[in-house]
């Protein structure tokens, strides 16, 4: 049965849309069939325009197929190929997400059954990024989640599926550097409990979220310490909680008085990925030892970033627990310290004294 004849003005509008390759014609959606080829197309099909006399118009797929035409592979009027492509890309994304190490482009393309360059274009069309960027994003998110959950860097790195730590740090600056949101860093919508106390080095202020200690400052007037905390977490609600933080304060004050062991407190470190990387590296410096800024930069796999490392040390929000006082200049000088060079000197002297004492004791035991 032939399709109902279309008004001739509609046909001429449709024909003009075919000639114009107008994918969204003003006359509304339709399909056209090319009688000499047996296929039907969407307006906008990139194939060469047929002759008018070989062209028939249809309102929908059912009508075109009923008339014996099959879907054009190029313009894919049924969306079958698009669906297949999307499915192939979805499968590739799942493969990347499940993988321990990033699958090669060749492996992904082979699995999907496409040529490499074609698969790359397809992947980019569907996801907006290359498979490599997608994989790096997946791993950055895994790492971020692990670090937020409090995993140590080395474990988080292994768990995130990166090949090596140094590799992470290459990627980190590009992908992770921006991810911990400024909102989280600013403490938006959060409560920070604080406790003021006295220590062997003057006033002490400890701040903590539900997750852990987020601020330790000392050796300044209490108002100045609190001002520093509020400036670092401008969006947080700050409330006094002397009782709740009594044990934490006791540990910090004891460390200041006599650094018998590393100050191990649950921490909630807020900073950029780079800053956190530096702060994690600081936590690995054993009590009684020091590192140079250059040494620390090399340790995080970014030897050129000496000044950025120094800046990150200066931004350390939890002095003592993240021992930025254990970083010294190349010639061993004490350089700067957020809480004053004399305190840095006193802390380092106290730590090396403890270290010597421990060594002496262990020799006695032997
Ligand atoms: Zn077509």
Automatic annotation (TrEMBL):
Binds 1 zinc ion per subunit. InterPro entries: Ada-like_dom_sf, Ada_DNA_repair_Zn-bd, Bifunct_regulatory_prot_Ada, Homeodomain-like_sf, HTH_AraC, MethylDNA_cys_MeTrfase_AS, MethylDNA_cys_MeTrfase_DNA-bd, MethylDNA_cys_MeTrfase_DNAb. The keyword Transcription regulation applies. Its EC number is 2.1.1.63. This is methylated-DNA--[protein]-cysteine S-methyltransferase. Belongs to the MGMT family. It is an enzyme of class 2 (transferase). It comes from Falsiroseomonas bella. Zn(2+) binds at residues 41, 45, 72, 75. SMART domains: HTH_ARAC. It catalyses: a 4-O-methyl-thymidine in DNA + L-cysteinyl-[protein] = a thymidine in DNA + S-methyl-L-cysteinyl-[protein]; a 6-O-methyl-2'-deoxyguanosine in DNA + L-cysteinyl-[protein] = S-methyl-L-cysteinyl-[protein] + a 2'-deoxyguanosine in DNA. It comes from the Bacteria. SUPFAM superfamilies: Ada DNA repair protein, N-terminal domain (N-Ada 10), Homeodomain-like, Methylated DNA-protein cysteine methyltransferase domain, Methylated DNA-protein cysteine methyltransferase, C-terminal domain. One of its GO terms (biological process) is methylation. CDD domains: ATase. The active site is at 41 (nucleophile), 324 (nucleophile).
